């Protein structure tokens, strides 16, 4: 049970999952009834609250179903068809819940009110009306947009906000053809930036699974180009992204300008040279558009052949082609499962290649990661090792923290800075998805909000999978320009 703002009042949104639908229960129909009883009880010391709200809901549902005392007939006509759905309703209930219905009922000429709706909205109109009577509604993934349209059209703000919350919470739910892209497009259409951003973040953080789904082919050109510009994409490799892009282009056949824009957003410097050679010969898309991206491929091969220090003298290595995304392949990091994350400190070692450049691909960096469930605040910490690494100080008031440091130093590190990314996984609607992403330089204390809302003590915490904390640490080597004046 959660409380969500619903217009001028708060309403209760109760979400009950089953295999086919979700029940969203709102207290609008019974709120005043139960609130009045509780207020009377508060005034009468020693009184007892008698809550018969559920029986009231049942009677309201029966009233709608039987049509007893109906004074208005709703004729819901599906646009461009002869289909008409007839619902016997009560003007008092409709006007209490919707000022749009109030205006329509004041201007009607007879007892019938004709409402013209699109096919998708007409199919769920009876559900929508039942919500006005009973305050709860059973929602399926494929009905969310239609019901949201009706709630917006008739200005039933409690239902509208409840559905927005439902969509935000069910991005990871399984559906035959996918639903996140459709919800993103709808949010863009109605100007709901919060829902749009939630959908975009979900697609970015779970891109590997999206690329393998049927939903990938339905992505619009604008959404595709938006995703390709992002550095926070989480996927196996840049090669995986190129191959998925090629499949999308083959399926959707966009105009040449769109293809060129998409191909130029690929970060070819992050693809090993042996794969770039193969793509030049075997990718029909690259062969066809080779002239459009020739300069990027040439720069990528230069990047792989020269040392970063030499390259930085002549090129701006801070541009996107040299900036890695969040790659999950073993060259860039490692998964880390922490059992019983509320107990003692845990340590872990793993290796990554020094950098994405072919010049550095054979060089390895060993990393030491330390997780502490009770990390002492930075302002109160004073102990350091000889190498300067911060030491965890346990305290009951501390918060979970991670530090990631190289096991050794090397002259090869010159010109390279390492950004660390911790990906926190969670299980939602039975599927493992990315819950949070944290970026930092040495310690997650720099991120500030690392697991700040996580209740790791609770076995059923949404941050845990089978009582364990599932992480993936990504090391992102960033080359930086060493000389201001280039030759």
UniProtKB/TrEMBL annotation:
Domain named BTB is located at 70-141
Write down the superkingdom of origin.
Eukaryota
Coiled-coil spans are none
PANTHER family, per this entry?
A: BTB_POZ DOMAIN-CONTAINING PROTEIN 17 (PTHR24410:SF12), HL07962P-RELATED (PTHR24410)
- Official protein name in the record: BTB (POZ) domain containing 17b
Protein source organism: Echeneis naucrates (Live sharksucker)
């Amino acid at each position: 049970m959660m409380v969500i703002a619903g217009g001028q009042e708060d309403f209760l949104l109760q979400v009950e999952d089953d295999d086919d639908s979700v029940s969203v229960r709102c207290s609008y129909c019974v709120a005043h009834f139960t609130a009045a009883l509780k207020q009377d009880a508060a005034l009468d010391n020693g009184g007892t609250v008698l809550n018969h709200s559920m029986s009231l809901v049942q009677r309201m549902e029966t009233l709608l179903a039987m049509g007893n005392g109906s004074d208005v007939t709703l004729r819901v006509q599906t646009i461009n068809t002869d289909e008409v759905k007839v619902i016997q309703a009560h003007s008092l209930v409709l006007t209490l819940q919707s000022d749009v219905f109030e205006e329509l009922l004041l201007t009607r000429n007879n007892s019938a009110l004709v409402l013209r709706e699109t096919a998708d909205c007409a199919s769920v109109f009876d559900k929508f009306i039942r919500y006005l009577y009973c305050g709860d509604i059973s929602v399926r993934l494929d009905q969310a947009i239609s019901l949201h349209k009706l709630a917006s059209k008739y200005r039933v703000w409690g239902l509208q906000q409840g559905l927005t919350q439902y969509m935000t919470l069910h991005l990871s739910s399984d559906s035959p053809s996918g639903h996140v892209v459709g919800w993103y497009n709808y949010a863009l259409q109605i100007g709901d930036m919060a829902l749009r951003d939630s959908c975009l973040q979900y697609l970015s953080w779970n891109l590997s699974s999206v690329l393998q789904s049927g939903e990938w082919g339905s992505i619009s050109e604008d959404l595709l180009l938006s995703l390709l510009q992002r550095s926070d994409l989480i996927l196996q490799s840049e090669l995986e992204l190129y191959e998925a892009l090629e499949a999308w282009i083959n399926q959707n056949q966009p105009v040449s300008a769109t293809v060129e824009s998409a191909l130029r957003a690929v970060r070819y410097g992050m693809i090993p040279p042996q794969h770039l050679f193969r793509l030049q010969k075997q990718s029909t898309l690259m062969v066809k558009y080779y002239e459009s991206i020739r300069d990027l491929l040439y720069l990528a091969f230069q990047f792989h052949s020269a040392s970063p220090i030499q390259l930085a003298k002549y090129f701006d290595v801070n541009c996107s082609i040299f900036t890695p995304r969040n790659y999950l392949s073993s060259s860039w990091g490692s998964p880390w499962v922490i059992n019983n994350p509320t107990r003692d400190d845990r340590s872990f070692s793993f290796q990554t290649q020094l950098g994405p450049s072919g010049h550095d691909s054979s060089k390895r960096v060993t990393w030491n990661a330390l997780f502490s469930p009770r990390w002492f605040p930075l302002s109160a910490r004073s102990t350091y090792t000889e190498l300067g690494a911060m030491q965890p100080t346990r305290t009951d008031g501390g918060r979970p923290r991670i530090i990631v440091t190289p096991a050794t130093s090397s002259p090869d590190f010159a010109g390279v800075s390492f950004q660390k990314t911790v990906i926190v996984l969670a299980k939602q609607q039975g599927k493992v998805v990315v819950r949070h992403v944290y970026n930092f330089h040495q310690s997650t204390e720099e991120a500030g909000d690392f697991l700040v809302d996580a209740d790791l003590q609770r076995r059923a915490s949404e941050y845990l999978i089978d009582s364990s904390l599932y992480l993936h640490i990504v090391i992102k080597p960033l080359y930086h320009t060493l000389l201001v004046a280039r030759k």
